[in-house]
Amino acid sequence: MTATITTGATQREPELLGQTVVVIGGSSGIGLETARRARVEGANLILTGLHPNDAVQRAALELDALSTAAFDANDPAALERFFAGLPKPIDHVMVTAGGPHYGRLLEMKSNELGRALSEHLVLAVETARNAADRVRPGGTLLFMSPEAGRATLGSGSELTVAAAFPSLVANLALELAPVRVNLIAAGFIDTPLSASLLGSDLENRREQLHATLPIGRVVEPEDVAALAVHIMINTALTGATYNIDGGEQLVSA
User: Fold this and answer.
1) What sign results for the dihedral spanned by CA atoms 25, 33, 222, 173?
2) Which of 157, 171, 186, 224 is within CB 3.0–4.6 Å of 116 for a Cys-Cys bond?
């Protein structure tokens, strides 16, 4: 008797099917790409942005989001109101809000330095506090930080955040268990934010990375999104920091 072997593509079930993913900072860049990737995996989406502008609405329309909100995530009262209005339970929260702050530490005013640190570290704690009774067991809180690197003039507050964030996430993972908490530490990512920061130097930076990175290309928002969704799906991951930089740390002087 001859066995018949049937070949062809095996269809798989979307791995976030029916789950709710909240993306704080989901109107552009890494947040938007993560929302797109999560939607492909069957997730229902709730997207937020800083301003009630067309970008948030376009993203919501494209991805058929459940809802949107516009608020300053670094305003504790606004963040609390947002979480209080969410349905229960939700499954995953990703925070991409908060931009980089550059400048010599001794030249930064106290309020500027405080905001540089709080836009990542305090925001993570406040998010965890508000999400604790809304994220189901096994779900995840996922944060973004700069990647730790060599000290350079003007990078002091960013490197402080990068050094402190992994310890903060590890402690939050213990306090929120069985909800999972993880961190993505990113090098240069080719986003609209990077373009606005670098201006006319953007193309030179891209060319430099193309020539020096082991992967032979610049890291894109889609790369970070793929990692973020994997962390949401893989329920064995918690308390960890995942670097994504295309190997930049391997070749940096």
Assistant:
1) positive
2) 157
Cβ neighbors of 55 (< 8 A, separation 6 or more) are 27, 28, 49
Q: How far apart are CA 119 and CA 157, in angstroms?
A: 11
Report pLDDT digits (tens) over 190-213: 777 666 666 777 888 888 888 889
- In this predicted structure, what is the pLDDT of residue 3? 46
* CATH dotted code for 20-191+220-245: 3.40.50.720
DSSP string of 174-235, one letter each residue: HHHTTSEEEEEEE----SHHHHHHHGGGHHHHHHHHHHHSTTSS---HHHHHHHHHHHHH-T
CB atoms closer than 10 angstroms to residue 236: 6
